[in-house]
């Protein structure tokens, strides 16, 4: 049985936090909101609890989890060395949607990192979530709270749709603020490298560090490239319905010509051709709104059970890269 409890993200009930902390200390699974997406949390120091996460999600054990802590000092505890670059980034962006990868200290079991010698750490924004982590007194490993490779969750309903009966508790604090996952930044090398584009851009990071940041070949998602981060498989974030991407509005007519049963999602400002009245269309013009609505729009469109979903991609511009990355993975061939 999965219990669902409503929590005020700014003024959480102490009793509810204590209940959730006890579940986590006991090796159970609690889903909670971060500013990006809902996470599925477990005590990162208990290998059994971590294995429960992989089982509930159906996630391959080679895909490492991000460890969530309540502040930068707690993050420094779980890495071999906390460099000055990390301190500067933490001061600028934490709490916030930046995951920092560094060589890991003993105490984080192999199952968390998929055997890698590094660990990803971040401090999430919502007060309630940081309060929960601090109260639990443990680092909390939390992947997105969805079934592996499915669309990420930005509402408690999404978590329940994917994981009902597989986890102990869902803390429902409404829709998440940002809507796409954190930027994953490798700091374990000479040149800081973005492994997953997200709300904090390469530009934001290089402004703080004063060095060039590699985008690791992003934004092109090439099937022939080795995956830069173990979780960055080509097909990911995907609806159940076959989903295709178009770069230009004119290509839409060709696809719509395939017959009935198409639903359309438009990202950015395209000049649309006349679309038949029976074709559902959702338009998300601007990147902040598009990030906020992205996964809900994919899930809702999927629920209409069309024969195919056509995604009209946003422009190849930095403010759209995180969204383009997720859309290209959602539409990669199966
Ligand atoms: O916004 C987020 O990051 C959300 C919320 C819940 O915090 N979490 C999230 O977790 O997106 P997940 O498990 O869905 O994605 C984690 C990503 C994967 O692409 C994984 O490969 C990468 O982070 N990652 C984690 N640890 C890593 C490491 N040590 N080295 C390289 N990549 C790592
Ligand atoms: Mg995920």
What would you say this structure looks like, in words?
It is a single chain. The protein is an alpha/beta fold. A 10-stranded mixed β-sheet has the order 1-8-2-3-7-4-6-5-9-10, sandwiched between helices. It has a 4-stranded parallel β-sheet with strand order 11-14-12-13, sandwiched between helices. It is globular. The structure holds threonylcarbamoyladenylate and magnesium ion (MG). The site of magnesium ion has 3 residues, from loops.
What's the arrangement of secondary structure elements?
Layout (H helix, E strand, L loop, with lengths): L2 E4 L7 H12 L4 E4 L4 E6 L3 H11 L8 E3 L3 H5 L7 H10 L4 E6 L6 H4 L4 E5 L4 H10 L3 E2 L14 H8 L5 E4 L10 E4 L6 E4 L5 H8 L33 E4 L2 H8 L5 E6 L13 E4 L2 H17 L4 E5 L8 H10 L4
Short description:
This protein is α/β, with parallel strands linked by helices and 334 residues long. The protein is built from 11 helices and 14 strands.
The coarse overall form would be globular
Number of helices: 11
- Element string (H = helix, E = strand): EHEEHEHHEHEHEHEEEHEHEEHEH
Instruction: Briefly note the structural class of the backbone.
Output: alpha/beta
- The total beta strand count reads 14
How would a crystallographer describe the biggest sheet?
10 strands, mixed
End-to-end separation in angstroms reads 33 Å
Radius of gyration: 20 Å
What descriptors fit this protein?
334 residues; 11 helices; alpha/beta; four-stranded parallel β-sheet; binds threonylcarbamoyladenylate; 14 strands; binds magnesium ion; globular
């Amino acid at each position: 049985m999965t219990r669902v409890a409503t929590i005020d993200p700014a003024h959480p009930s102490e009793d509810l936090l204590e209940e959730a902390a006890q579940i986590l200390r006991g090796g159970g699974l609690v889903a909670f909101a971060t500013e990006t997406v809902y996470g599925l949390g477990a005590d990162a120091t208990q290998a059994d609890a971590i294995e429960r996460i992989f089982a509930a999600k159906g996630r391959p054990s080679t895909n490492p989890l991000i460890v969530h802590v309540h502040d930068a000092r707690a993050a420094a505890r779980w890495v071999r060395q906390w460099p000055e670059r990390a301190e500067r980034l933490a001061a600028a962006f934490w709490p916030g949607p930046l995951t920092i990868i560094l060589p890991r200290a003993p105490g984080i079991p192999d199952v968390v990192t998929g055997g890698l010698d590094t660990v990803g750490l971040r401090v999430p924004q919502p007060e309630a979530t940081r309060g929960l982590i601090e109260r639990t007194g443990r680092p909390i490993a939390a992947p997105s709270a969805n079934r592996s490779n499915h669309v990420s969750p930005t509402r408690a309903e999404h978590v329940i749709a994917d994981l009902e009966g597989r986890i102990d508790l869902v803390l429902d604090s409404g829709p998440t603020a940002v809507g796409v996952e954190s930027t994953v930044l490798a700091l374990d090398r000479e040149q800081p490298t973005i492994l997953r584009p997200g709300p904090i851009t390469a530009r934001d990071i290089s402004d703080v560090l004063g060095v060039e940041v590699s985008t690791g070949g992003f934004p092109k998602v090439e099937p022939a490239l080795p995956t830069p981060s173990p979780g960055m498989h080509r097909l990911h974030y995907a609806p159940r319905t076959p989903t295709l991407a178009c770069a230009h509005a004119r290509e839409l007519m060709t696809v719509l010509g395939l017959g009935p049963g198409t639903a359309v999602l438009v990202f950015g400002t395209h000049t649309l051709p006349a679309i038949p009245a029976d074709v559902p269309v959702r338009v998300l013009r601007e990147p902040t709104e598009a990030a906020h609505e992205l996964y809900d729009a994919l899930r809702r469109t999927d629920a209409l059970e069309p024969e195919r979903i056509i995604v009209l991609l946003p422009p190849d511009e930095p403010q759209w890269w995180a969204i383009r990355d997720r859309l290209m993975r959602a539409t990669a061939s199966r």
